[in-house]
Amino acid sequence: RPGERVLDAGCGTGSLAVALKAPAGPAGSVHGTDASREMIDLAQRNASRVGVDVNFQVGLAEALPHPDGTFDLVVSQLAIHHLPDDLKQTAFGEMRRVLKAGGRCLIVDFEPPRSLPGRLVARMVLGSEMMRINVTDYRAPLENAGFIEVETGRSRHRLLSFVRGRLRDEAPQR
User: Fold this and answer.
1) What is the 3-state secondary structure (H, E, C) of 61-99?
2) Residue 153 burial (CB < 10 Å; 0-12/13-18/19+)?
3) For the segment 3-27, what is each residue's pLDDT rounded down to a tens digit?
4) Which residue intervals of the chain are DSSP H helices?
5) In Å, what is the CA distance from 99 to each residue of 12, 24, 59, 70?
6) Distance between CA atoms of 92 and 166, rounded to whole angstroms?
7) Which of 47, 57, 144, 149 has its CB surrounded by the most CB atoms within 10 Å?
């Protein structure tokens, strides 16, 4: 949304972060973090080539280099599956930490095809390891991290699905 602060965790080449700058508008800001210095360098070159102002820096999803409550939206596309299972929960907690009250999280990742022929073709194309990844498995860890209204769904791309949730608009009373 216009004026929002957005973080792309595991930004890779920066294509999603660059695409998110237009909706954030001139008053908004987009940041990208990735564990790979090479990917950050490539993301910076890609953003510069198209004249888009996005802030990229090296950082781990399980230890985001941003202060608490910085962002309105955290996104992650095709990155979480790279984390070992024990670090996924930590990463979701970090996403929660850097979000403002009422902030939103959207994760897009693989979901194996439902049909047997689809699974066989996908396994041939992507390999058996990729077919073990399932974005719907991220639902419970997001809820455990404190997100509410968590939901999953299919994208228009056959092998990609999403999980999303949001934080409460204000901190619970103690």
Assistant:
1) CCECCCCCCCEEEEEEECCHHHCCHHHHHHHHHHHHHHE
2) exposed
3) 999 999 999 999 999 999 999 999 9
4) 15-24, 37-49, 85-98, 116-126, 139-144
5) 21, 16, 16, 6
6) 12
7) 47
Element spanning 7, H or E: strand 5-9
Say how many CA atoms lie within 13 Å of 50 toward its Cβ. Answer: 15
Q: Could you tell me which of 73, 155, 62, 150 has the C-alpha nearest to residue 110? A: 155
| Residue found by looking up tokens 């929660």 in the block | 96
Average pLDDT, the chain: 89
| CA–CA dist 72, 82 (Å, integer) | 24
pTM: 0.87
Flag whether pLDDT at 114 surpasses 90.
Answer: no
